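FAQ: What does a ligand-bound record look like?

Like this one, built around zinc ion:
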Amino acid sequence: ARARHVRAVDAELRRARRTRGALPDEGATPDAPAGGGARSLHDAKGEQQLPGDLVRGEGDPATGDAAVDEAYDGLGATRDFWRTVYGRDSLDGRGMGLVGTVHYGQQYDNAFWDGSQMVFGDGDGVIFTRFTASLDVIGHELAHGVTELTSGLVYQGQSGALNEHVSDVFGVLVKQHHLGQDADAADWLIGAELLVPGVQGRALRSMSEPGTAYDDPRMGKDPQPGHMDDFVVTSADNGGVHINSGIPNRAFYLLATALGGPAWERAGQIWVDTILGDIRADCDFARFAALTVVAARARYDDEVAARVLAAWQGVGVVP
Ligand code: ASN
Ligand code: ZN
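The answer part, i.e. the structure of the complex:
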């Protein structure tokens, strides 16, 4: 009965995503130019109309517009990361084209995945600069695409915090891979390049020390917990999806540094196996932790699995 239920939910989710245009129709051949994660960058020119004017397609030369060119390079680095490290061809595993829009809105202080494409604001210039400035933020937004097309983690409460967590994990891994950095040499920050000089902070989030990324009169203090004892119960932010993600984020950091070497290798692979495996869209922290332990044992051995368990114990998800 559960298997049938899962299949029914799956079919429902796929239908919903297809209706929103995120998935190609079953049996349809992807457009040739879009195969292999071909990029197309658009300029919204300060409006909020998507996708905006096409300004740079795959293989086109740099435009000289920093936002366009950073987005082009960041989408490329993220696509190449998924392909070379995990053998995944673009977000859907089938070479889906990567669409991005920059200069979205006026002084727009965010970047997001809209269900079928990436969108980047220019920032207000006072606290935030343009959102294409951080490769980990580009990797974060693209990972939302992977999640939406696969596990479908519901963007609310603990499953929503896991959705955010998965995006932070693959965001930092894209950056660490790009820089060739081992786990213990990395800064584990998300969005460090986005903060205008003078802001009292280092980044949007810290995966190694959640809650310490910023403390500025204009932004308040970083609200992220790094342990279940400090789990935040709130109705804001879809039940604190960008807040409680600090807890699994720190578990991933603890694991990656305990294993040593490049975090995208064993730790990242375990997370990939988990999110592309048999995971429910309403997965909570405890269930996710159990799935990662199982994935670690399946791909590696009991010793690695024990390290995964220890990381979750370190943040109080496993007693
Ligand atoms: N930058 C945010 C994110 O990707 C935007 C949002 O909250 N949807 O999570
Ligand atoms: Zn996000």
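Follow-up question: can I read anything off the structure? Yes, for example: Confidence is low (pLDDT under 50) at residues 1-35.
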